[in-house]
Every structure is written in C-alpha cells, then in structure tokens.
Amino acid sequence: MPDRYLGQTIGKYRVTRLLGTGAFAWVYEAIDLDLEIPVALKILRPEFAGHEIAEARFRREAATAARLRHRNIVTVRDVGQVNGTVFVAMDLHPLTLGHRLALAGRLPEADCVRLGIEVAAALAIAHAGGVIHRDIKPDNILLGTDGEAVVADFGLARALAGAPSLSATNQVMGTPHYFSPEQARGQEIDGRSDLYSLGVTLYRAATGHLPFEGDDWYAVARQHIETPAVPPRAFAQELTPEFEAVIVRLLAKAPEQRFQTATQLLDALGALQSAPERSRFMPAAGAPTVDAFPAVRTSRRRVAIATSIVMLSAALIWMFWRDRATPEVRTGKAPEDPASTAIAPPPESGQVTDGMQGADTRRPSDSISARPTAARAEDSVRTRPPTRPTRTAAGRVVRLSLSASDSARLYIDNRLVGTGHYTGDHTAGTTLSIRAVLANASTTCGVAVRDTVLTLKAGDHVDLNLPVRGCAVVSYDVTPRDARVAFTPMEGGPSVEVRADSARALVLPEGRYTVRIQAPRCVTGADTLLVAAKADGTPVSRRFPLICS
C-alpha cells in the first residue's frame, strides 16, 4: 500500500504525505533533510523493484526530464536507490491542471491560451531534443507558484535517437481520452501526436468537456480515429473563433493537417487577441537561452510590421527609379563633365560582383534568431558573410557547416546528414532543428547529445560546433554512508554532489575529476579519478574510506 512509506526516511528524504499514485510509481511530498526544502519524491512501486524493464523505464524518465532543461519542464534533483527502493526527487508542484479543472470546471480563454503557450514551449524543447512525451494530459501538467504550466512525467517518452526503446513500436501507450489517432492505431508517432494530445487538453480546459467520451477503451480510441469533435464553441460560446480554429486544427485526424511543429503552434497562439504579453513568458534569468516564443505578437506589432513593409516598398521603388533615371533627372541639372557622370552598367541578371560591393555588412551576431537548447559555453556558433553570395528562385542561400566529435551522428530535422562533419546549403528563412549524438551512448548521458534550433538569415555562413562526449558509470563505496561526495571536472564544468546513502553509482561524463568526501566528525578526504568508459561496459569502481573519530 502507498501508506507504507509515510513517515519513513529514504536516503536524505523524509516522506510526509502522499500526492498521487500511478501504474508504475507513487508520488509523495518529502523533505530534503540537507537543504530543508520540500520536494516531490517519486518511488517505483515495490512490485516492480528488481524488475529490469520497469526500473529501466523509471530511470529513463528521470534521465529524460533531467536533460530537458526549461522553465516549463519539471526539474529533476536526484535519482537513487536505497535498500531496494528506487526513487526520483523533483521540484515540488503540488497542484496539477487536473486538480484545477476538477474544481473550476473550465478556464477562461486567456488562461487556456497561456497554458497552451507554456506547454507548447516545453514541447518545442523536448521535440528539438528528439523526445516525444506521449502522455500530455491535465494530470501531467503541474502548476507553479505563479500559475505557470510545468510539464512532468516523461515516463512514456521515448528518445528518437540513442539506446533502443523499451517499448515495442506497435505497443499502445498513453491515456485513451488523450490519444492521438496514430497512438490509437498503434502506429509510429512523432511530435505532432503530442500536439494532438495538447489539443484535447485545451478542449477540455476551455469547454469543460472531453471531445470524445466513453468508459470503454476501444470505443474512445475509435472516436479518435473516425469521429470529428464537436466544435468547442458549441459548449462555450464566449470562445473566439480564432482560438476555436487553433483547437480544431490541433485535433485534425491526419498529422499533416495539424500544426507541424510546436513552434508553429506558438506562433498561432501568440497571434491571438487573448494571448498574454510576450514579456510574461520570457525565460527567467539563468534559464536556457532558447527562443521558444518566436512570434508572440500583438495587434500593434502587426500594424508596425505592415507600416514597415509599405515604407520599405516605397524606398525600393525610389531607388529603382533613381538608378534608371538620367543624371539630369536625378540631380535637376546638366552634368559639367560628361566623363565624370559615366555610370557602370548594372550587373546582368544572375551576375555576382566580387569585393565589398556585394558583401553583407551586418554584424555576425544578428544572423541567428534562435540559440542553443542548453546554455553551454563550449558550443560555438560563428557567422560570416559568404565570399560569393548566391541566389535561388526561393531566396538567398545560407551555407551551414556543422562539426562534432568524429563518431557523432549529425541530424537536421531528424534526418541523418553526416558523421563528425557536415556542410550544405539551406534556404534563408528556414528554421532547422540540429542535433549531434553519439550513437552508442546511454540516454542518461546528457553530454552525448547536443541540440540547437536555428533560424537562418540571408548573407551569412553559419559555423556550428556541437561537441559531444561519452559517459561512464562510476560505482563507489564510501564509509561512512552519510558522507557527502563531490565530483568536480578538472577540465571545468559543474560539480556533481551526492550523499553516499542516496545512490551507489553515478553516470558521469568522461574526463578527470577531483573527488572530495566530507562527513561529520571525519577527516576530509580528497582524491583524483579518471572516468573513461570500458569496452566491456563495466563501471569505474573506487572505494573512499574516511578516518573518523
């Protein structure tokens, strides 16, 4: 029974109350005894302890959520196992959207639009990282202290690259009332399936009704596949037609008829009159620098853009007339010296001139409108004007160069384009999801994957370096068990600190570390450790005994 853990201390966490139960785990509120703060402690149910597949799924959930850093994705603080109890510690958000809807019935349109923007922002980050959530629903959307949406429970998520999935391709997973049609059929899915589930969630939040009701799993699944949803305004006439149109498009049966990316959905929601101001959704200081809200616009901004287009068109017409006119027309007087007014003929169509005359003089920093998914100092992005800018019928071409470790696979929009290095031309104005990944790395190795979302602008050559490296399991035995162990990379980077009794092994990026062990009434210990993956997969093992009084 879930009550068995109430009042117990698991590692450094004292369990205080039950928050919820699920098929694989129980969630509790607990106190971090070191930091003296409340956390959410998710514990694998005892019947699954020692079950290889269940424990692998449980750890994968924590690893996936920990790698996807964003203010609208729940923060994982710790993963461990104590006396056969497997747990994950996360930031505590005791209220869910499901609870709020149970109390309120439905929400005003402005609240629904804000909810959609924040969940779509989280999905944009997840999808750029190659992760599909698979179970977007009100119970998996937590509410922060300011009412912001925080997406949790990546237990059904599956990485598109990396280790093989624990789920069979045709295995139906998720919650039936929030299934996408392709989930109901047991087909392969992509990020558009999450957008469908978000559409069901917004329908429920805005109308107080689910688009497809029923107690029988099969009957509900058939409705997702075959039956059109009743228009939301049939239940809530105060909804604007524009917001209704967004929901209806999200609920399209065919994935190609929905929004194709979470970023497109952000554009649509941000353009609504009921959308909040952009400043309310900017990432907090220190948050990952991804432009996850690229087009949250107001009507005044649209007017300003239209005015700018008119003014630019007038300027171009004047410049064309000026270049074609005779000197007398341009200056209002005859030239004094015919030789001094000789004008070189304009280049023929398709001709490109050399030198600064054809160069783009914008600053390189102006050429990228989206930044890497995770704020890493070692990621390097450079832009420079091409020596010979080219044009196509579709627009200016941007030369994109990618580099990573020699064994890293490079993907553009989930399509493999090379290993280690890639150079190619892309049309300006397109937005690309770029990923570098070590194919054989574990999904728990965050540094084995680097993701970036770029919007390319004309006139630049983009050089992007995405360094990736492998990880190794470090198994350690520390005496006494209440000691704190800190692993600090000697090459630079954040330290990893744990209590010896919270976990007996860690996954660390390869490299050299200084190890510092401290415990009450003990002499502080220090050592160095080389972390390198072994060919046979065995962990790096080290024993750290302390001298204590």
**Globular, elongated, flat, extended or rod-shaped: what is the shape?**
globular
* End-to-end CA span: 41 Å
Q: Strands across the major sheet, in which order?
A: 1-2-3-4-6-5
Question: Biggest sheet, open or closed, and with what strands and sense?
Answer: 6 strands, antiparallel
Q: Could you tell me the mean pLDDT? A: 75
CATH homology superfamily of the largest domain:
Transferase(Phosphotransferase) domain 1
CATH class of the largest domain: Mainly Alpha
Backbone structural class: alpha+beta
Q: Estimate percent helicity.
A: 10-25%
CATH fold call of the largest domain: Transferase(Phosphotransferase), domain 1
Question: Which regions have little confidence, pLDDT < 50, spanning 5+ residues?
Answer: 159-172, 278-301, 325-378, 385-394
Strand content: 25-35%
Q: Give the total of domains.
A: 4
Number of strands: 27
What's the short story on this structure?
It contains 10 helices and 27 strands.
Describe the structure.
This protein has 549 residues and is an alpha+beta fold. It has four domains: 2-91, 2-Layer Sandwich (Phosphorylase Kinase, domain 1), CATH 3.30.200; 96-281, Transferase(Phosphotransferase), domain 1; 367-465, no CATH class; 471-545, Sandwich (Immunoglobulin-like), CATH 2.60.40. Helix content is 23%, strand content 28%. It has helices at residues 52-67, 97-104, 109-128, 181-184, 191-207, 217-226, 241-250, 262-270, 299-324, 327-331, and strands at 9-10, 13-21, 25-32, 37-44, 76-82, 85-91, 95-96, 131-132, 141-143, 149-151, 158-159, 380-384, 391-392, 395-403, 408-412, 415-419, 421-427, 431-438, 449-455, 461-465, 471-479, 484-489, 496-499, 505-509, 511-518, 525-531, 540-545. The strands form seven sheets. A six-stranded antiparallel β-sheet has the order 1-2-3-4-6-5, with helices on one face. Strands 12, 13, 14, 17 and 20 form a five-stranded mixed β-sheet that branches. Strand 5 and strand 6 form a beta hairpin. It is globular, with a radius of gyration of 28 Å. The model is unreliable at 159-172, 278-301, 325-378 and 385-394 (pLDDT under 50).
